[in-house]
Amino acid sequence: MGDFIYDWIDILWLPIAFLTVHKKHRWWALAFVGASMLMMRLLSELMTHGGYDYGIMNLMDSHVHSRGLVTYSIFYILFLLMAHYSPRTEGIIFMAACISIFFIAMFTNVLVMVL
What we know:
Radius of gyration: 15 Å
Largest sheet: none
Strand content: under 5%
Order of helices and strands: HHHHH
Number of domains: 1
Distance between the termini: 29 Å
């Protein structure tokens, strides 16, 4: 049971994202968090099935899934702050911000997982 909770603890970010952003940005926030959750799991599984449970360089003692959770949680907080303080942002601009932050989070997570 503990492993199941550990594996899916970041699902709590979905209702947080839905409730903290402005009404017109809610679906973009859910899409961002959902896509980020999926990407974090894909990267974690890629590293684990490749035999690198603790990173390629093995410089950190934590598991790559734990590092992914922490890295993406930091980016979720930054995203929610950005979304909260930009209530009048148009849809296309907000979408571009979501995509940009998604790729920044992904590349940062890859670097953290390699360590």
